[in-house]
Amino acid sequence: MPLALLALAIGAFGIGTTEFVIMGVLPEVAAGFGVSIPTAGWLVSGYALGVVLGAPVLTVLGTRVSRKKMLMFLMGLFIVGNALSAAAPVFGIMLIGRVIASLAHGAFFGIGSVVAANLVAPARKASAISLMFMGLTVANIVGVPLGTYIGQAAGWRVTFVVVAALGVVGLLGVARLVPDEGRPESADVRAEFAAFRNVQVWLAMAMTVLGYGGVFAAVTYITPMMTEVAGYSAGAVTWLLVLFGTGMFLGNLLGGRFADRALMPMLCTALGALSLTLLLFTATAHHKVLAAITLTLVGALGFATVPPLQKWVLDQASAAPTLASAANIGAFNLGNALAAWLGGVVISAGLGYTAPNWVGALLSGSALLLAFLAAFLNRRTRQAGSAATGTGRPPSAARATAVTARR
């Protein structure tokens, strides 16, 4: 594994910790500011919306500098946001801190995905992307449970001080290990936006919004669900988050490996299984053991969709992948914001803490339908290209044969 992938994983670990740790300390934060749980859920939605905004804006601005320098700047922004969250005197200031930290998220993973893919052979691109995202999944095994424990034992403000320190480590890792490749090959902003003329890019982002949003519909309110419905103690939430993180870690690795072999079949299988699992979570949440098993499966199936979705976007926007890649990371968090809001709506309506699971199942099921549509359109495009060349192969293959024949 190139050491640069390790550096990217370190940065991803810090970002993953701050994204998910809020769910483990949500009751403590709500009590500290004197707001309700659904109101505190805006710290999840606000972060997600910040990612959606920051991903395209900062990526476009970053086309004027090297990818390494941009990654370093993003980690600095991450540090500032978390430090502000730790010191926030009122809820509104903490929300601003969360948004500032989130601005770095989408661009970091978007630019990092391109860097990771460029470090390996074409047949290993999805696996390389999954290795970068491994930092985020490890954060859910180590960083988030530890941050939750610290928040419950020493106060949630200490948690965010530690997260800011993780950002410092990530910054140093990027500075030391990531090679300076110069400015992106496609520094023309118009060329980057041209990628969005491809309907497959939009379909991929819609699948991302709905598919991964299904995970967040349930997980945003996992603490009250596990304590109020399943009957776990508040202290047990730490270990439940370890299980969720372990599922994410395994799902991410398997998703990357199988996406390199059969991308769309892997994606459809994961989305279908995720929708069914979230549906079952409504019932299994009432039983301690079954709830823990289902939570692990939700993490595994949800993150098994990440490498294939990100790889699909890179493939469809291969001429100018940086902005499209970052925008897809924004789509993940748009789904998070939508799902967190919808989960709060059904809870506030009095439908109970398991109601968000129904929302998640519907979102993931909708993503599966879009995956079928994307596969159909891709197959039809390939068949049309083969018929046009009269070779039975896509146009690119026909052109390669023609070039060889002329030599």
Automatic annotation (TrEMBL):
At the top level of its lineage, which domain of life is listed?
Bacteria
Major facilitator superfamily (MFS) profile domain location, by residue?
A: 4-382
Stated membrane topology is: Multi-pass membrane protein
Q: Where is this region: Disordered?
A: 385-407
**Segments passing through the bilayer:** 42-61, 73-96, 102-121, 128-150, 156-178, 199-223, 229-250, 262-283, 289-309, 330-352, 358-377
Where is this gene product found?
A: Cell membrane
Q: Which GO terms describe its cellular component?
A: plasma membrane
PROSITE patterns linked: MFS
Q: Pfam families per the record?
A: MFS_1
Which GO MF term does the entry hold, naming one?
transmembrane transporter activity
Give a yes or no for keyword Membrane in this entry. Answer: yes
Matches recorded under InterPro entries: MFS, MFS_dom, MFS_Efflux_Transporters, MFS_trans_sf
Per the record, the major location class is membrane
Where does this protein have compositionally biased stretches of type Low complexity?
A: 397-407
Which SUPFAM superfamilies would you find in this protein's record? MFS general substrate transporter (SSF103473)
What is the name listed in the Swiss-Prot or TrEMBL entry for this protein?
MFS transporter
Organism for this UniProt entry:
Streptomyces griseoviridis
The record lists the lineage as:
Bacteria, Bacillati, Actinomycetota, Actinomycetes, Kitasatosporales
